[in-house]
Every structure is written in C-alpha cells, then in structure tokens.
C-alpha cells in the first residue's frame, strides 16, 4: 500500500478512537446476537418481516409472475422502467389518494431527489428542525434558501413565515414558493406532527397561498389511516399535502419508497434528479416485496396487526407512567419522556418511544437492557441534539405482554439504582 493510504487510515483510526472515547462509536451488533434478544429496536413495527407474513405474500407474487427477471437492467430513463413497476406506482398512488407516484430505492434517495431538484432558485424551504437527515442532505444540494423553525411549534412557523415575507419580495408578491417540510411521526422523539395547526398558520400568514406542504410518512405508512394508508389519509388532508413520501422499510417491512405527487413533479424528477438518472432502477424483487406489503396492510390481517400494535404501545406507556417509582424518577431528573403528556390523547400513537436518561447515561441504560436480553437503540449526538442522548424503543405488533412488562421493569430498576447513590452521598 502507498504511504498516502497509510496516512489516511491512521487519521481515520484516530477519528474513530475519539468517537469511541466519547461513547458515540457506532458498532452494529451481530445478527447472531440479535436473534437471541427481544426486539425493541427494529423498524419492523407491524412485525410483517419477522413473522414471515411478508415472505409468504412475496412468494405469492413470484407465483403470479413466474417469468420475472432478477435485474432491472438499466436506469429508469432508459429501459429500467418495467410494466410491473409502472403498475405498482399507479396502484400506490390510487391507494393513497394521489395523482401520481414515483418509486425510489430508498426513502433517503427520494428525499435527496426531491429537495435537491424541485424547489427552484428564489424559493425558500422552511423545515421543522427535527426533519430527517436525508431532507437536510437534499436541501444542501438544492438551489433554494432554507430556514428551520422550532420543532412542531406553529407559533414559531408563523414568525418564520412573517419574516420571510418581509424580507423577500418574490414571496410577498406570490411569484416564489415557500416549501414547508415536515414528518408525520418524528423518528427520534416519536411525536406526531401538528399538521392542522401548521396548515392554519400558513393559510393565515401567506394570503397569496404560495406555499407547498410536504411530509415524510416513513413511520406512519401502513400503521394508521384507512387500510394503513397513513397519517395524511387518516386526517383527510391529501389535497393539502401535494408532496408525500411513503417509505416501505419501516412498518411495511421491506425496502424502497414511493413519492406521491403529480405528473409534472414526477417527470421533473425523471429528467433532473441525478439519483434517478444515474442509478439502476428498482428490481422486480424489490417491487414485488412492496406489492406484497401493500396487499398485507390492506387486508384483515393488516387491520388486526395495526390494532395489536396500538394496544402494545398503550400498554408500554401505561405500565411505565403508572409505575410506583415513576413520579420520583421523573422528579429527580433520572428519566424524561417527551411524549408523556400526549400519548393518551389520540386514537393512535407512534411505535417510537424516546426514553431520555440524565446526561451521559443512555449507553449505560441500553447496556442494562441488553444484558437482560432486550435490544433497544442507543442514540447519541449528533443524531440527536447534544445532551439529549437516549434509548429509542420501538414497539412491535408481535411483542408479547410479558416482554413489554419486563422491559418497563428493567428501565425502572435501572432508574431507581441511579437515585440510591445520590441518596447515599447526601447522607455523608
């Protein structure tokens, strides 16, 4: 190897060592280890993948199309757009009440394509400060100016829009567009978007109506709404959100993502989005798995799985917040639950629950759970804000009542142990 390569590796090793020293090194667990543990981590929230239900539905798709080919053979702009893929896009658009749909290899690819391509020079993208990293990466490549507003705060959005209107003649005159980027369920806090309030603010603040709302439904697709059609369909807001992203790698159990839009936006992406033009098109196998997932969520089994998931989410919250030690643990700042005040208010909740321990102890809590056979995500800065490291719990349809009760007990055991050393120190 050249000396240059050795120098590079040395620098990278130093960077990784520094991250490990700070307790933030990402080291994925082995599949063998995960097989032995109860899953409170994966995004397979409906348990479609882990239960084998999606496999069976996928194999049925293969039987219906015995002459399928493995590869897509090309980019979508050449001969990679097969009829099966076009039919899937048509049916997904209809399922979600949209004019058109365009399928991507991942939600990340879709967000980068949209935000680097669709907003034009002179437009402005206003985004919730907690939107996904893929939206940020797309905006960095785009031509529009960008500005964040405080998470899920309609008043903050109003102030932001007022400022934009005062400082930008094109926005004030209605010749330029304000894009407002949101998520349905936010991936780290697990809270739901205040969609209705944010819409009301935009309508009030921008009288020329020169705004476009976009939403990433990664964590609501398949989980809520008529036949699992998502957050926006549940609230009947399809006409208010002309750009919607429905990913398939979370509740749907497979991979890929579909952007819901109109024909103009679809063909703009096919013509200008570099990730579309220079990537191999999705294969039949990917598309068939997605088709199988949609068949499942629209069925009676899908409805049953959604019901059981919500029951499990409610059980977790109820057991945790009614625990005999919860008030003490909370008052002493050992644990913080961002969704404690809202989880019981609506007909459904996100399967994501953020449990935020006192500073620097998230990894310790995560390890405590892992030692007892319960796998959760431990999330550190910069994925979440500094001093907001957490364990990110994902509830699943197939989690048992016993597993849920036990993971709550383990969390509280750990929390009580954090109080006792303080009490002992206070007596000295």
TrEMBL record:
Matching SUPFAM superfamilies: PLP-dependent transferases (SSF53383)
Aminotransferase class I/classII large domain sequence ranges: 37-409
Cofactor(s) this protein requires: pyridoxal 5'-phosphate
GO-annotated biological processes: biotin biosynthetic process
Top-rank lineage group of the source organism: Eukaryota
Coiled-coil ranges (or none): none
Any one GO MF annotation of this record: transferase activity
Keyword tags: Pyridoxal phosphate, Transferase
Sequence similarity: Belongs to the class-II pyridoxal-phosphate-dependent aminotransferase family. BioF subfamily.
PANTHER family: 8-AMINO-7-OXONONANOATE SYNTHASE, CLASS II AMINOTRANSFERASE/8-AMINO-7-OXONONANOATE SYNTHASE
Protein name: Synthase
Species for this entry: Aspergillus nanangensis
Gene name of the record: ALAS1_1
């Amino acid at each position: 190897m050249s000396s240059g390569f050795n120098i590079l590796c040395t620098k990278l090793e130093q960077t990784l060592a520094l991250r490990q020293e700070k307790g933030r090194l990402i080291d994925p667990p082995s599949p063998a280890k995960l097989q032995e543990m109860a899953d409170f981590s994966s995004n397979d929230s409906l348990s479609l993948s882990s239960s084998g239900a999606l496999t069976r539905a996928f194999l049925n798709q293969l039987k219906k199309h015995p002459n399928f080919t493995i590869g897509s053979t090309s980019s979508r702009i050449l001969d990679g757009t097969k009829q099966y893929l076009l039919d899937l896009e048509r049916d997904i658009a209809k399922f979600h009440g949209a004019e058109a749909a365009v399928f991507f290899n991942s939600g990340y690819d879709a967000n980068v394509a949209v935000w680097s391509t669709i907003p034009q020079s002179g437009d402005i993208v206003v985004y919730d400060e907690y939107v996904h990293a893929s939206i940020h990466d797309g905006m960095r490549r785009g031509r529009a100016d960008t500005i964040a507003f405080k998470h899920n705060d309609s008043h903050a959005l109003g102030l932001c829009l007022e400022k934009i209107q005062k400082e930008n003649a094109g926005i004030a005159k209605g010749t330029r567009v304000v894009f407002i980027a949101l998520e349905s369920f936010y991936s780290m806090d697990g809270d739901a978007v205040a969609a209705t309030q944010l819409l009301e603010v935009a309508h009030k603040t921008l009288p020329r109506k020169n705004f476009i709302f976009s939403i990433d439904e990664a964590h609501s697709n398949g989980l809520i709404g008529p036949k699992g059609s998502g957050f926006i369909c549940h609230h009947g807001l399809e006409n208010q959100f002309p750009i919607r992203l429905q990913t398939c790698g979370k509740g749907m159990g497979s991979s890929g993502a579909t952007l819901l839009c109109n024909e103009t936006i679809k063909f703009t992406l096919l013509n200008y989005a570099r990730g579309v033009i220079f990537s191999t098109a999705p294969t039949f196998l990917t598309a068939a798995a997605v088709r199988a997932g949609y068949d499942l969520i629209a069925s009676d089994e899908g409805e049953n799985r959604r019901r059981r998931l919500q029951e499990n989410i409610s059980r977790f919250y109820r057991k945790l917040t009614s625990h005999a030690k919860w008030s003490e643990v909370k008052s002493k700042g050992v644990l913080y639950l961002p969704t404690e005040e809202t989880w019981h208010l609506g007909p459904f909740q996100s399967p994501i629950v953020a449990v935020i321990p006192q500073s620097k102890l998230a990894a310790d809590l995560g390890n405590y759970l892992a030692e007892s056979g319960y796998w959760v995500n431990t999330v550190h800065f910069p994925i979440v804000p500094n001093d907001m490291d957490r364990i990110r719990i994902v509830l699943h349809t197939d989690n048992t009542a016993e597993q849920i009760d036990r993971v709550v007990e383990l969390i509280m055991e750990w929390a009580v142990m954090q109080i006792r050393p303080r009490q002992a120190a206070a007596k000295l």
